[in-house]
Amino acid sequence: MSIKRSILLRVRIAFLLVFLFSGGILFRIITLQYAEGDRWRGLAETLGLEMRKIEATRGNIYADDGSLLATSIPFYQVAFDPSLADSKLYSSGIDSLCYMLSRFYDDLTPTQYKRKIDAARKARRRYILINREKIGYQEKKRMESWPIFREGRLKGGVIFEKVEERFLPFSQLGYRTIGTVNAENRGVVGLEYSFNRQLAGMDGRSVFQRMAGGGWKPVYDGTEIRPKDGYDIQTTINVNLQDVAESALLKALTRHQADYGLVVLMEVKTGEIKAISNLSRNSRGDYYERYNYAVGSQGAREPGSTFKLASMMALLEETKMELSDTVDTGKGAYKFYNQTMRDHVEGGFGVLTVKEVFEKSSNIGIAKLVQKHFGDDPGEFIEFIRETGLGKPLGFQMVGEGVPYIKDPTDSTWSGVSLPWISHGYELKMTPLQMLTLYNAVANNGKMIQPLIVKSVKSANRVMDTFKPQVINKKICSNETLAKLRLMLEGVVENGTAKNINMTKYKIAGKTGTAKNVKNGRYINEYYTSFAGYFPAEDPKYSCIVVIDNPKGWNIYGSDVSAPVFKEIADNIYALQVEMHQELPKDPDQYAGIFPVIRSGKQDELKMICDDLGIANLSNHDASWVKTDIENNTIIWENNQISDSRVPDVRGMTLRDAIYVLENLGLKVEVSGRGRVSQQSVLPGSKFNQGNEIKLELSS
């Protein structure tokens, strides 16, 4: 055989083999595509399966009256399985469906939507995301009535994928206290974080199939585990009081351009926190809730003069000192070892009683008294303070409570000046909430209780867990000491550093505080101002602490900056809660006898009526408005003075006269009943502001 024929044979054999191999591949392709296509497509659908999480619906957070503070609102993303609808259903409804989708989303034309869905159906894709935009429940209900979609998931192929978002009905009110959640629906800060275990519930699991384009479609094969929704929590926060506190704080922060401020309002008997607000200034000068300074470790600061309450309690309880005892505070400067202490008044106070030392907030006075009685054994003073309950965390329900720090003689930094400086609120650290707990204990007859912010955990209407205030200290001091402390706290407002917030309607008891801030280990001329106290002092219902850090301008003391915020909050609460008002004093029964209708009104009109009826009447003044008194069978006209700044006594007047008097003063009148005025909701002689409301009760 020649070489040429041999080569030709080999080429032919190779060509035949390639042809046969190619034919085999083509045959296999045809077989896979048509003969075995359904089998392999079914197998492909089992690939890309994954057991995925189904998130539980997060529980709600409620205010004390059941108002919603935080809830999860369901939104939906619309997906579609275009292969499920049969040919008749698809052809009859696709044009209308695409038109509605185009009108709703306004992103593609009807033609573009149809082209997109037709291509997916032709390619036998089982899942396409119609649009990433989230829709609400009402929009979902509307879409469920559209062509093809109205046949549901199994016949029409529509898939509404639920995506929950956290919603705060009161917007930024109490934002930092309520807290936030992250993308995984877990609490990040605040109550959302502290009670995440209860709120989060238990996620379910189900099989999902990965679709072309990266989407995931649920496969309901009976193996899914349904999620268990989270529990609800009911807080002690009162929405109205929270609004009052935040508004007053924001106004003061803006006025003084302070770095941050906080308010905590607590119910005395129960320890329930009714309002808590923390506002910080950002780089643009706006205030928002960034950090919980009232509770957290960053809020643990040297409290300044509000700590003098603890020092005075130790002095009264551990020594035989009386409020009438005196101490010479000198001319405003006094040297303890190598450090000079100063009072806030130039020239000093001279000789003061113990009561005046507290009322006027003399640093030198309190330091000399503490040094005199505890200087030989400073540990006794520190131990007493710690035993009251101030030396350890409160065990508050929110995570991240700051740890109090009270220096003692075993500390390496203790020096000869530590005791006098601790006595007026330096060389120690307390959070505002811890400081408030002491003042609340004084208001609560000596019982120190743990502050409470969550009352219960619920599943629908079923209570799963309840929280009650824990007693930290049954009695922080004797009743005799308590009485003296309360007298001094009232004296601060009546005669001392906070007399600018004194009033006649009700009494406030409290203490101002001003401490220098520390920067790089040195005290600087920036101030941490505060006021802590309770009201009404006669029968305390609320305790409150206000802190404003680094106020700018001339007003830099607690009396000028924080105390007015306390008063504004107290005034608003007093106006809102009529049950706190004192009962109107009972007048003598001047309406009995033979003069049932002549009670109060304009003197000239009443006198004319009496003269016409022949009723004896006397007056020794020419006042326009009068009240009646009776002596024997004679009416005596008594002056019922109407002042521009005080609420008049309109009891006994006709409704016409009462409205004339009150509305001319700028008061808003609310009336119930018929006849003459028998009761008024605001005490006669009380101060008022224009626009205040007064309720009148009429009776025949």
Structural overview:
- This protein is α+β, with helices and mostly antiparallel strands.
- It has four domains: 3-35; 52-234, Penicillin-binding protein 2a (Domain 2); 242-580, Beta-lactamase, CATH 3.40.710; 600-699, Trypsin Inhibitor V, Chain A (2-Layer Sandwich).
- Helices cover 33% and strands 26% of the residues.
- The chain has 21 helices and 33 strands.
- The strands form ten sheets. Strands 2, 3, 4, 5, 10, 21 and 22 form a seven-stranded mixed beta sheet that branches. The protein has a six-stranded antiparallel beta sheet with strand order 13-12-11-26-25-24, sandwiched between helices. It has a four-stranded mixed beta sheet with strand order 27-29-30-28, with helices on one face.
- α11 runs parallel beside α13 and α11 (308-318) packs antiparallel against α17.
- Residues 584-594 have low confidence and may be disordered.
User: How many strands in all?
Assistant: 33
Largest sheet: 7 strands, mixed
Task: Name the shape in a single word.
Answer: flat
CATH architecture of the largest domain: 3-Layer(aba) Sandwich
Q: Please tally the helical runs, counting DSSP H or I stretches of 4 or more residues.
A: 21
Average pLDDT confidence is 87
Number of domains: 4
Low-confidence stretches: 584-594
> What is the top-level CATH class of the largest domain?
Alpha Beta
Name the CATH homologous superfamily of the largest domain: DD-peptidase/beta-lactamase superfamily
The radius of gyration is: 39 Å
CATH topology of the largest domain: Beta-lactamase
Q: What is the helix fraction of residues, given as a range?
A: 25-40%
